[in-house]
Write a structure and sequence with these properties.
This protein has 9 helices and 24 strands. The protein is of the alpha+beta class and 445 residues long. It has an 8-stranded mixed beta barrel with strand order 15-16-17-23-22-21-18-24. Strand 15 (316-320) and strand 16 (325-330) form a beta hairpin. The protein is rod-shaped.
């Protein structure tokens, strides 16, 4: 619909700016409006082209020309009836957009300023804590978050000192040992753990660090502390020392003399600690103990060195002069008791420890004292039944002393010889093959 001429004039006059003198703008507007009003029905219309609702049709070119132009001083404003209202709306909209853009720009500038200030403050805050470990970090269950490197180092050193006081318990070949970890020259890798602790914050970036410093959380991180015992200390101070006590060569069977009897000590195998395997076991047990695991009692491996078959003393003879008895031991146990005849008080059998140095079957006899007690006897008697030594003789490493047979069985059980030890002939013949050379002979009162 085309607006009426009156409405066009009204809109035009309402949009005129005030004059510099403050007077009403465009006085011609009012006179033009009166003129239009006075024309009344002089504006012709075409009934056939009018719309059904009775609205006025668009003015003819002659009518528009009647409005003509409006002069304001030297300024002339031209308008077309179809565009005056649209242009006024555009001008108003453009002003509102300008004000909106200006407000948005102001807000953005303020936000950027605040953001810049907050960012600068955050960076400054983060930098002021660059020499400290971020909260929530621990090493070997020792909390070190918030500490400087020096403070954290002292805390971990105290932890190592407590670990060093722990004891390791070992056993080898029936012996028990207690070893302090402090003797193993522990090597704590504290600096490496601290490097990893500082790396936690660096890896999370500034936002992650600020979250931790401002108490907003962050995952707890417990880092390991590697503490290693010295392999050299394990081998030299522990294993070698134990080996010195445990290692022994095999021992043959022996006889220990007492004041009243003889005691056989059976042969004993040798023992040798297996050094390499023992060192590995001690090293691993020390690592377990350092890391808080109880290794229990560590049983160090060793091997036995067997005794040579038949080695040692298992046969012995004991003569008790006061009893006139001979005790024969075989395989380290008493095998027989025999009645004997030892030296007379004038020619006593010597006391002490002796050994069999020679075995003589069917011995001959040479007169040992042709000028004294043997002067009535021949200087030599060959082997045979009349020989004073009988058919068997065991020579001791004492000059002139033998264990031999005798025909004078009635004197057995009493001192009757010139120092030798006489036995019944059948008994010495039975004993003879069972007594090896080297058999110890003990003569006791």
């Amino acid at each position: 619909m085309v607006p009426s001429q009156e409405r066009l004039v009204e809109e035009f006059c309402n949009n005129q700016p005030p004059t510099s003198s403050g007077a009403e703008p465009m006085s011609a507007c009012s006179s033009k409006e009166d003129e239009l009003n006075s024309q009344g029905d002089s504006i012709s219309t075409n009934p056939q082209s009018a719309p059904e609702n009775g609205s006025v049709s668009a003015p003819s070119p002659a009518e528009v020309e009647a409005v003509g132009s409006v002069s304001e001083g030297t300024r002339e404003v031209l308008f077309e009836p179809h565009t005056v209202s649209w242009r006024a709306g555009v001008v108003g909209a453009q002003g509102g957009l300008r004000r909106l853009f200006s407000a948005v720009a102001t807000v953005l500038a303020a936000a950027l300023t605040v953001f810049t200030l907050l960012g600068a403050s955050a960076f400054a805050y983060d930098k002021s804590r660059s020499e400290r470990i971020v909260p929530g970090v621990s090493v070997a269950n020792v909390p070190i978050g918030g500490l400087t490197r020096e403070e954290a180092r002292a805390a971990l050193a105290a932890k190592v000192a407590k670990v060093s006081a722990r004891n390791l318990y070992l056993t080898a070949a029936g012996r028990s040992y207690s070893v302090s970890l402090s003797s193993l020259d522990l090597d704590p890798r504290i600096e490496e753990s601290l490097d990893r602790a500082f790396g936690v914050g660096k890896g999370e970036g500034i936002l992650g660090r600020l979250h931790r410093w401002l108490g907003r959380g962050g995952p707890a991180v417990d880092l390991p502390l590697e503490v290693l015992p010295s392999r050299d200390a394990v081998e030299r101070r522990v294993v070698a020392s134990i080996a010195g006590e445990v290692n022994r060569e095999p021992t043959d069977a022996t006889i220990e003399e007492t004041t009243d009897d003889i005691v056989f000590r059976p042969p004993s195998p040798g023992v040798e600690l297996q050094g390499d395997a023992a060192s590995d076991m001690v090293f691993k047990a020390a690592l377990d103990l350092i890391e808080g695991r109880d290794p229990g009692v560590v049983r160090l491996p060793y091997k036995q060195i067997p005794v040579k078959e038949g080695a040692g003393i298992t046969t012995a003879i004991l003569v008790r002069v006061s009893q006139q008895r001979l005790y024969f031991y075989e395989n380290a146990s008493l095998a027989g008791i025999y009645k004997v005849s030892t030296g007379t008080p004038k020619y006593p059998t010597p006391f002490g420890r002796f050994r069999v140095v020679q075995k003589i079957m069917n011995p001959s006899w040479t007169n040992p004292a042709p000028d004294t007690w043997g002067k009535e006897m021949p200087p030599f008697i060959p082997p045979g039944p009349d020989n004073p030594l009988g058919t068997r003789a065991l020579q001791l490493n004492a000059p002139g002393i033998l264990i031999h047979g005798t025909q004078n069985v009635r004197a057995l059980g009493s001192p009757a010889s010139h120092g030798c030890i006489r036995m019944n002939m059948p008994e010495i013949e039975a004993l003879y093959p069972r007594v090896p050379v080297g058999t110890p002979v003990f003569v006791r009162p």
